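PROTEIN DESIGN WORKSHEET
SECTION A - STRUCTURE
LENGTH: 541
TOKENS:
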């Protein structure tokens, strides 16, 4: 019989080929249209640069659109399927749920642990245990944790025991925390389910994950698609709505083409401990941070290493009951984003310096890298387009090429009608995935109450407006993060603010000072070109 993990369980190559061909055709067609927009009187150096930046942006937009289109079609069929029943008593393995914490709210995290332990003690007695992995450095918080653990032990039963340990030497942050557990206590368990400090999962989902692991001995990791909850601010509620409505479509698309070569997002996933211990040890990158040292975004790399060893890495987009909390403010999001940006850019040496990785695993790493490099590319596209417009507005054009005799002047013009068409198509493929999510959600509501459908449509329009206004702010913050990392600045490791306390207006003004100045400068430059151009750029400025 085939040994689990060797050789690799194959994926359907035609699915990935289909996605690649569709992406290339769509991106190629839009690039051809953009070239026709610019080449009316021949291509200048600035126009060639604009075209190159357009290609770099449109390729990833096209890829996301194709993936979302497939996810929409698959999710429509799945909306009418019934959920599989679960029986916790039928489980034959032992699973540990890990709660890595770092200077977190003790009351918040321990309440989650207590609720999880009690639910599993009832639904699957003796099949699960909970383990708090503390990397807390604040002495006051550490004392709270120890006191909270004593209370927790009294409130929970032997049917789902809770354990606690705190490291005093915080090597390699979260990944080191989990590695320390695996090397010390991992042999006691068959699987581990990793939580974040703001994760939640229903007992039915936890049992289903273990059931699927037991039913497929070649699975090394099964990742759920968490939905955001707990949003209290307008920004957080908009993010939460997007996660609820658009997340299943996007997750289903990724699951469809990645198949056995999915990804890991660091939490709300089940991992086979023997596979993880034998295959997913992380390297320490050469050099100093931000590009060297311990890998911050360890999850993508661990998934790639598991797949390299032959284990299946699956995204279970069909599972419900998996949740996490999101940042309540844009500032909190950018603080988290800065850390993620550094972690994803650390994947560059992993991508080019690690042998034996599956092509799809390399694609996941590339997508993570491009999710942050896309922002400076987008900003450069705007700036080059503006420079081209300013050049045509203020500089004296060379109507005749001095090298080639001609009786016809070379006018520096573009095709405005075709330019508008390209703009409309680009906006369409950006917004259609949101429409897919809305249509998928509308199939699941009770149309005996049409107000629900109308409300859902209204909320979707509001989310589109909010996300359009937030996008350029995040573009600049991510561009600044990329610039800081390239210049050698390390992000450090600070706990995430998870509450909704908010910030004083002076803190908001200081944090967004550079963003505001950029918006003013771009607005003035756009007005210098023409009021119409300024109006067109207004959503960003």
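SECTION B - SEQUENCE
RESIDUE ASSIGNMENT:
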């Amino acid at each position: 019989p085939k040994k689990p993990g060797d050789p690799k369980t194959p994926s359907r190559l035609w699915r990935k080929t289909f996605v690649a061909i569709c992406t290339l055709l769509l991106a190629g067609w839009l690039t051809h249209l953009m070239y026709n927009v610019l080449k009316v009187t021949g291509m200048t150096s600035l126009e060639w640069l604009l075209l190159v930046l357009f290609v770099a942006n449109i390729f990833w937009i096209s890829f996301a659109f194709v993936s979302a289109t497939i996810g929409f079609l698959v999710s429509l069929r799945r909306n009418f399927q019934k959920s599989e029943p679960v029986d916790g008593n039928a489980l034959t393995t032992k699973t540990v749920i890990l709660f890595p914490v770092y200077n977190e709210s003790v009351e918040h995290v321990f309440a989650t642990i207590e609720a999880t332990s009690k639910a599993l003690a009832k639904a699957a007695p003796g099949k699960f245990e909970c383990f708090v992995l503390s990397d807390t450095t604040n002495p006051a918080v550490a004392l709270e944790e120890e006191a909270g653990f004593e209370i927790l032990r009294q409130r929970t039963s032997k049917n789902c025991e809770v354990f606690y340990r705190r490291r005093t030497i915080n090597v390699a942050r979260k990944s080191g925390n989990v590695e320390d557990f695996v090397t010390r206590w991992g042999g006691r368990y068959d699987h581990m389910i990793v939580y974040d400090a703001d994760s939640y999962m229903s007992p039915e989902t936890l049992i289903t994950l273990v059931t699927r692991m037991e039913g497929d001995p070649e699975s090394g990791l099964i990742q759920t698609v968490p939905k955001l909850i707990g949003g209290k601010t307008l920004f957080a509620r908009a993010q939460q709505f997007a996660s609820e409505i658009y997340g299943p479509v996007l997750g289903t698309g990724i699951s469809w083409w990645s198949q056995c070569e999915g990804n890991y997002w660091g939490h709300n996933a089940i991992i086979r401990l023997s596979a993880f211990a034998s295959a997913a040890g992380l390297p320490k990158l050469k050099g100093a941070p931000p590009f060297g040292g311990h890998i911050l975004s360890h999850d993508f790399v661990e998934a790639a290493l598991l797949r390299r060893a032959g284990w299946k890495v699956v995204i279970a987009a069909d599972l419900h009951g998996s949740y996490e909390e999101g940042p309540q403010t844009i500032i909190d999001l950018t603080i988290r984003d800065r850390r993620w940006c550094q972690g994803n850019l650390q994947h560059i040496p992993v991508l080019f310096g690690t042998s034996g990785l599956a092509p799809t695993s390399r694609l996941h790493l590339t997508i993570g890298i491009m999710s942050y490099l896309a922002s400076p590319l987008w900003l450069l596209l705007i700036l080059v387009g503006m420079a081209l417009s300013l050049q045509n507005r203020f500089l004296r054009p060379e109507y005749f090429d001095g090298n080639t005799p001609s009786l016809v002047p070379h006018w520096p013009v573009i095709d405005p009608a075709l330019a508008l068409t390209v703009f409309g198509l680009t906006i369409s493929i950006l917004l259609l995935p949101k429409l897919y999510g809305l249509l998928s959600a509308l199939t699941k509501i009770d149309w005996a109450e049409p107000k629900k459908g109308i409300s859902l449509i209204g909320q979707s329009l509001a989310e589109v407006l909010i996300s359009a206004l937030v996008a350029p702010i995040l573009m600049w913050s991510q561009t600044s993060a990329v610039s800081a990392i390239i210049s050698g600045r390390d992000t450090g490791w600070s706990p995430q603010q998870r509450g909704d306390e908010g910030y004083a207006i002076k803190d908001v003004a200081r944090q967004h000072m550079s963003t505001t100045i950029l918006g003013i400068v771009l607005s003035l430059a756009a007005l210098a070109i023409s009021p119409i151009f300024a109006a067109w750029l207004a959503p960003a400025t």
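SECTION C - NOTES
Residues 450-486 form the longest helix (37 residues).
The mean pLDDT is 91.
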